[in-house]
Every structure is written in C-alpha cells, then in structure tokens.
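Dear U.,

Please find below the material for section 3 of the report. The protein was modelled together with flavin mononucleotide; I have listed the sequence and SMILES used, followed by the predicted complex structure.
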Amino acid sequence: MSKLLYVISSPRGEQSESRAIADEFLDAYRQSDPSVEVDVLELWTDTLPVYGGDGVAAKMSVFAGREPSGDQASAWAEVQRIFSRFDAADEYLFTVPMWNHGIPWVLKHLIDTISQPGMVFGFDPATGYEGLLAGKRAVVVYTSAVYYEGAPREFGTDFHRAYFNDWLRWAGIHPVSEVRFQPNLVTSDADAGRAVAKASARALGNRFALSGRRAA
Ligand SMILES: Cc1cc2nc3c(=O)[nH]c(=O)nc-3n(C[C@H](O)[C@H](O)[C@H](O)COP(=O)(O)O)c2cc1C
C-alpha cells in the first residue's frame, strides 16, 4: 500500500486551477487503487510554526556536530515532527502556482523547515550534498497565468518550476512527473489547456496506481 502526501500550496480552495488538476490525479489513482493512503497538507490552513531564530540556530549547531539545547532543542523537535510527517510518505503530490516568478512562500517555508542535515540531506566536504529522500516519487502540478516556457522576458522568468524541480532532485526525490497548465489566463484557449492538463493528470494517476501495485 502506498502512502501519498498531498501538499497544497494554493490558498484558492475550489477556485484553484492547480488543485482541480491535482484532484483529477488523485481521483484516477484512487479509482484504480483504493488502498492508497492519503495525507493532505494544506499549507494555508494547516499552518506550520515559524521557522526562525531558534530553528536556524539549531540547524547550525547540528551542522557543526553539536546537540541543540534549551529553546533550540524545542525548535528542533518541531522541525523533526514536521519532517517526520513529510518523510512518512513514499509518494508526493504538490500543487505549485507561480507567485511572482517563484513559488508561494508557504511552500518555501515548508522547504526551509524540513531541509535539514540528517533529514533531507547529508553533506560531505569532499563530495558535497546527498539527498536522503531516495526511493520516493513525486507529481507536481505547475500553474501560471501569464508565464509560459519560452516566453519573452517581459512575461516573466521561471524561478518556479526550475527551483522546485531542483529542490526535489537535491532532496533525492526521483522520478518527478509534471503536469503544467501555463499560461491559464493570458490565453485564448484556457478551456482546451485545462482539459489537456486534467487528462494528463488522470493518466498519471492511473500509471501511479498500476506501478504501485506491481511494486507491492
Ligand atoms: C500573489 C500572486 C502572484 C502571482 N504571480 C504570477 C507570476 O509571476 N506569473 C504568472 O504567470 N502568474 C502569476 N500569478 C497567477 C497564478 O500563477 C495563476 O493564477 C495560477 O493559476 C494560480 O494557481 P491556483 O489557481 O492553483 O492558485 C500570481 C498569482 C498570485 C495570487
């Protein structure tokens, strides 16, 4: 049985384009494999504690090989709790709208909270970083209103998909499948693009269910 964490980074609820597409993935997946266990992390309502001074100090202590103590230890325990929820999944589904050419800050907050030594990454001074989340796979739904791949600079720059895909790679999460609905506002053909994105999400959902069953 697969455990899937559904991370929602749009606050737009029923209006969310990325969520509507991701829901198609999940619906197809569940129809093909009702045993999939889904944990939903709604980043705008299931708010994470602020990762601030104590958490940062704890990270630097751990990176230097020391044990955090006092307020740092409490902040570190919170980080471990959030990471454990993330790490409990073996599959991920993310909704990632483009916000000001990047990702919504709630998703960056999750990344900054859990990207810790001994959790998401290891480090060797000779060979560099090593992602510790190997053996997990992800589906990401990317949306933007104006930006599209190959667009002139005046329509935006991709610090969105490029950044998030690279974080997944750095963390060791592989393979990553994408569904993109870009642009979804400044286009004469939004309905067709939406239908294609939803169909490709459903196909991916079926594929995940089938390959999960084969692996089981
Ligand atoms: C705060 C904010 C910033 C945005 N920045 C961009 C942007 O830089 N480029 C773009 O093409 N669309 C931008 N958009 C539009 C969203 O990416 C687009 O509406 C997308 O469909 C949102 O996904 P959602 O419907 O799942 O929330 C922005 C929207 C918001 C609310």
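For the text of the report, you could mention the following: The domain at 3-215 is CATH 3.40.50.360 (Rossmann fold).

Regards,
Y.
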